[in-house]
Amino acid sequence: MSNYVEMWKNLNMDLETHDALCQVLPTAFGDVYLSQENRPEGMGFWDFVVSEIHGIRPSELIEAQKNGQKVFGTFCVYVPDEVVIAANGIVTGLCGGSQFWVPGGEKVLPKGTCPLIKASVGARLDRTCPFFRIADMYVGETTCDGKKKAWEILGQDVPMHIMDLPQMKRDKDILKWADEIKEFAAVVEKVTGNEITVEALNEAIHTINEKRRALARVYEARKAAKLPISGKDALLMMQIAFFDDPKRCAQMCNNLADELEKRIADGVSVFKEGTKRILVSGTPMAIPNWKLHHIIETSGGAVVCEEMCTGTRYFEHEVAEDLPTLEAQYMALAQRYMKNNCACFTPNSGRIDDILRLCKEYNVDGVIDVNLKFCSTYDIEGYTVEKALKEAGIPVLGIETDYTDADAEQLRTRVEAFIEMLG
Fold it and tell me: What is the predicted pLDDT for the residue at 47?
């Protein structure tokens, strides 16, 4: 990625520290991904994106800014991309998934903060991630206490808009979320200088729905008895979907789905017969957090589905299209996004329903419920998840981890024992 040095300099990045990250990532990616056999050819696109992860997409964003477009950095699946796109803006994900950024976050945050939040703050303040340097505005949300305080710190360094997500799902809460989306739209119009029209928002809704449908096609292929793609590869596709151009993302996912469907018809599998099918639920796995998937799939299991934000929550449920007014469109957006069952809600029985439904749809043998350390909402909800799965007769393993490799061997021992117990 040496061709991008001048771009990184212009972004005022810490090049020496950033070089250390660039040296580590290719080895980690090779060990986890390129060591796999019989991968779909379509994964070549995502391999290329990772090889140029801090170069090719950032350079596209900078070029768009030169042409007058604004870039909005988001941290959560509740922020409606459709609103930004309708104003000719661009959305990029910003969550940090690497231990490399955590020490930078710990300079201003307690060590007892979840690693995703610490990594996200560290990536910005240590100036080692171009996406965090490029965004014209960050869009936060009130999904947890840690994030709410982190926004106060990041807001001192970059323009920040915070969306107040309701903590319940009553009719009045959905109305409140629709009003938050309307307020967000006004902010986006001011930042971009472009008016959001009914026609533009309908087109944006269609664009994101097409992206959701393409991602869903890949996940549908993972329901097959003979798995045409590994869980690691599906996770990589999903992680990059948060950063990529939505139309290109849909096209590449559809191309991959075409290949996977042919593999299913031809009886091609990337796992040997009898490999145990695992559903992973819990906290999101931001790029490059591949640790748990790699451990599972090198310990006799196959990850067939992720019930998390970097999984089914990102693409399930579409927004109603071709509505006649902005008010109707904001309500349709609110209704769709409030169907996501994050652990921040109370009560949150919908997430239990989702997990049980996905277990049946993907014919899983067991569930691994993962919690990033210090994420209290998912940690507490883990009790309810495990209780419901045991009552349904579905084996479950609860795991708490972070971004370091310090617990890798301990996790491997537990995962191997769990998979062996599945028979």
Answer: 97
Neighbours of 410 (CB within 10 A): 11
What confidence tens digit (pLDDT) does each residue in 214-241 have? Answer: 999 999 999 999 999 999 999 999 999 9
Supply the mean pLDDT for the chain.
97
Q: In 11-129, which residue ranges form alpha helices assigned H by DSSP?
A: 15-29, 44-51, 56-66, 81-86, 102-106, 115-125
Cβ distance 60 to 259 under 8 Å? no
User: Three-state SS for 422?
Assistant: coil
370 has which bridge partners? 282, 399
Helix ranges (H only) for 242-284 are: 246-266
366: tokens are: 């067991």
Domain boundaries, the chain: 2-421
Residue 170: Cβ within 10 Å count: 9
Percent of the chain exceeding pLDDT 90 equals: 98
Separation between Cα atoms, residue 192 and residue 241, nearest integer Å: 23
Q: Which tokens is 74 given?
A: 């988001």
User: Binning pLDDT at 50, 70 and 90, where does residue 3 land?
Assistant: confident
What six digits make up the tokens of 130? Answer: 């171009």
Q: What is the pLDDT of residues 241-289, one digit of tens each?
A: 999 999 999 999 999 999 999 999 999 999 999 999 999 999 999 999 9
Long-range contacts of 5-10 (CB under 8 A, 24+ apart): 7/55, 7/58, 7/59, 7/62, 7/130, 8/54, 8/130
The rounded distance, in Å, linking the Cα atoms of 85 and 185 is: 10
Mean pLDDT over 76-97 rounds to 97
Report angle CA 158, 247, 329 to the nearest 5 degrees: 75
- Within 10 angstroms of residue 244's Cβ, the number of other Cβ atoms is 21
183 torsion bin: left (phi>0), alpha (psi -120 to 50), beta (else): alpha
